[in-house]
Specification:
The chain has one domain: Porin (Beta Barrel). Strand 1 and strand 2 form a beta hairpin. It is 5% helix and 63% strand. The chain is mostly beta strands.
Amino acid sequence: MNARALLSLLIASPLATARGQASAALLFSAALDARAQTRVNQNAPWDFYQTSVRIDVPVLAGHLVSLDVAPDIVPLALTTRDPAYTSAPFVPCQGTCEAIDRVSLPRVTRHVAFAFGAAPLAAALHLNRHQFVELILDARAGALWFTRAMPDPNAARFNFTLAGGLGLVLAQRLLLGYTYQHMSNAGIAPVNPGVDTHLLYAGVRIAH
């Protein structure tokens, strides 16, 4: 038996080669108090919210299992704590001075940064499909464009994203799940802190 025949045998039992029906879902994701490295705080809090439209197109589907191409379109995302820095005025100390008193420390203000983007490189494995409880394992890669450099003023507005997660589909309509996402500019800017977020999402299938 050659390798091609063996591969066909392994996938033939749970999967059929016929394509299933495509679907689309509207999702809302949130990561509260995520952590990002900044110039004044190695563990600064960072909130992130995202709305997305996910399109699932089965490329290999059977009765209970399907392997889908599953890109995300992100019309709106935002962070509420993007930092900006200004130098505090120098105030001469009185009496004994510590070293910290003789430098100008940056003041930090937090701002909202909006973004849009997509994750076109995406795949999802659906288990127990078309049942009341369906399991999804997914991985995706994409990019977001922010209205401000993120998460540091010397970083970049354009950031790449890598994500993976798992979720549930209830009654073939309601989606609940978790996504781990890494975001960074991949060194295209002088500063590349990177942000790791733990996203919880909820959504609904709007077409299937």
